Write the structure tokens for this entry.
Amino acid sequence: HEIYAQGLQGHTPEITCNLEALEDAARSHLEPGPFGYIAGGASTGATMRANREAFDHWRIVPRMLTGATTRDLTTTVLGQTMPAPILLAPIGVNSIAHPHGEPAAARAAASLGITMVMSTASSYSIEDVAAAGGDGPRWFQLYWPDDDAVCVSILRRARDAGFTTLVVTLDTWTLAWRPSDLDQAYLPFIRGIGTAVAFSDPVFRTMLDRSPEEDPVGASLRWIPMISRTCRGWDELPFLRQHWDGPIVLKGIQHVDDARRAVEAGMDGIVVSNHGGRQVDGVIGSLDALPSIVDAVGDKLEVLFDSGVRTGADVIKALALGARAVLLGRPYVYGLALGGEAGVRHVLRSILADLDQTLGLAGYRTPTELGPDALIRAPRA
Ligand code: FNR
């Protein structure tokens, strides 16, 4: 409504309301290195394309005369009340998009009551990002360091800063083959970007001959292998349980057997995700992985979803297929690049308004009313 009212006075929004078109806007705004790092995917980009195509395989079947004039997007995720079934996905190195980085994204999210999952690869420290977040639930994403003392120190700092839910990302124990970054020899971490959590960590600092301030390259070279050569096993999850007393969510699940193993390991939730197509090329669209996983474990732990969400209709499809909430990735980083904190806020308000309107027009008043009967499988071309 605000946008139409401003349109009457000849003002159009500075940033597009079309989240798919944000990528093009960001391309002309960012240097090729950072843009390629954010937009890029594994190898040929087939997984990224599959993520979007998977949404086209499902169509919403709208219902009429349901009285959905007013909606309430409020939901609960792992027992925590959230104003909408949307979180900001953990995305590191935000300062390559905008110098204000993760604290700006956290402030924008907090202004709407939305939870941003803070990444281990953030460009700002745990304490800085926590201070920027609001009073809502705080979630921290872990890239699991191969040094236990560093791991425990990071977990303790996250807990002391008020984070209550831990998201452990499993699919990025080493970086994938990403031609855009390789061709440009661009890796933010080598430049000391996305290392703030480690560089500010008292235990990590004791492992260095020279401080990260004196020798950022040396410190980066010590940190990168610590989180990128560590393919852990299922039998190691009790270690995290021992050192984290809140809910634990495993991110990067695509196979139904892994979802079952997460249940066996006593996890509280999973994120069905292929890291936005950045890790394994030629993977099924993440939404295609969702129904069988929900079937197998949906009543035993909470299932969240990400990879390719761009519209309100996408959110509806993921929820109708059994996801409790979705995580939004690249679009908010493009918003950050284009308009800092206000840009992230614009992106979030756009998808929230789109979800609210589309949900109502489809005939539903709350996200929890959605189920498989809201969709049909679309005939393939
Ligand atoms: C990511 N993602 C990610 N995931 C994670 O667990 N920790 C991280 O630090 C990062 N960093 C990161 C950087 C960039 C530039 C991108 C684009 C993605 C993955 C992210 O959490 C999420 O899974 C995907 O972004 C979801 O896909 P879409 O929405 O980008 O298609």
